Amino acid sequence: MKILVTGAAGFIGSHLCERLLEIEKIEVIGIDGFINPALNVTKQRNLKLSLGSPQFEFHQVDLRQADLARLLDGVEVVYHLAAMPGVRTSWGTDFKAYVDHNILATQMLLEAARGCPLKKFIYISTSSVYGEKIGKVTEDSIPTPLSPYGVSKLTGEYLCKVYQASYGIPVVILRYFTLFGPRQREDMAFHRFIKGILEGQPIYIYGDGKQTRDFTFIRDCVEATVAALDAKGVIGETINIGGRERASILEVISILEDLLNKKATLEFLERLKGDPLDTWADISKAKRLINYNPISTLKTGLEQQIKDICDIMSLPR
């Protein structure tokens, strides 16, 4: 089976490619545009293991300029992860990049996929489409995104549904909740926290730190994503992928202080616009449809992320 993965050099995409390559008789075509030059070294590091596999073919190309018909030739499953990430940076004139990479690129990929005999087109979305909700969030909750980023990802979902309804593209939508683990981008919270504590630098907390997240370890997320590959009865479904436990930002920092045996210096800033107070995934549908059962605890996941960051910084751990 030949599988196309967009965003293959990213935090999630690189882990997904490696996991798919462990499965017998699977070939992976990876695409990544390296759209943020500041992440080039990180992305090259992310790809190192996959590039060593004869079953992996990589193309560094912007989806909007790619020869999608050629790249999709013989492909049976598409995992569409490529996107411009980040809530904070999606406001103002920067939103144009979100339109280009999260909306336009998705539409172009769907248009190219129209003539392909795909078994599945798996679109990776985000809990940011939900906005502010109380309690566990089910997939039938009305989306009310709080940020332009959330709007762009929700628009991608609607495009998928339109192309499924009109052209029969076998779409599956996975909504990820706050991922963490090795290879997390440097601008993301856990990476900033760990590096700040290690270097004795102040950690900036937006709001009072009591906001909670449904933290999902990368390995659990990838297992769920791979499970969607062969799952029956998932075409047309939207599925939450959440973690095993929720915690507040301050609780996470307390765990990191214990693991690193160092105190954090905290500086509190104004709460960010577009950032919900709490997220909490109802994953009962994922359990039923793809047998999803997250096993990683917050502590064990953080231990692995600390090791990864220490390796990057060439620190003993």
Architecture blueprint of SSEs:
Layout: E1 2-6, H1 11-21, E2 27-32, H2 40-51, E3 56-60, H3 68-71, E4 77-80, H4 95-113, E5 120-126, H5 148-167, E6 171-176, E7 179-180, H6 189-199, E8 203-206, E9 212-217, H7 218-230, E10 238-241, E11 245-248, H8 249-260, E12 266-269, H9 284-290, H10 298-312
Helix pairs in contact: 1-2, 1-7, 4-5, 6-8, 6-10, 8-10
Task: Give short descriptive properties of this protein.
single chain, 317 residues, alpha/beta, Rossmann fold, UDP-galactose 4-epimerase, domain 1, 2 domains, seven-stranded parallel beta sheet, three-stranded mixed beta sheet, 10 helices, 39% helix, 18% strand
General description of the model:
The chain has 317 residues and is α/β, with parallel strands linked by helices. The chain folds into two domains: 2-179 and 216-241, NAD(P)-binding Rossmann-like Domain (Rossmann fold), CATH 3.40.50.720; 181-213 and 244-278 and 295-312, Alpha-Beta Complex (UDP-galactose 4-epimerase, domain 1), CATH 3.90.25. 39% of the residues lie in helices and 18% in strands. The chain has ten helices and twelve strands. The chain has helices at residues 11-21, 40-51, 68-71, 95-113, 148-167, 189-199, 218-230, 249-260, 284-290, 298-312, and strands at 2-6, 27-32, 56-60, 77-80, 120-126, 171-176, 179-180, 203-206, 212-217, 238-241, 245-248, 266-269. A seven-stranded parallel sheet has the order 3-2-1-4-5-6-10, sandwiched between helices. It has a three-stranded mixed sheet with strand order 7-9-11. β4 (77-80), α4 (95-113) and β5 (120-126) form a beta-alpha-beta unit. The longest helix has 20 residues, at 148-167. The chain is globular and about 55 Å long.
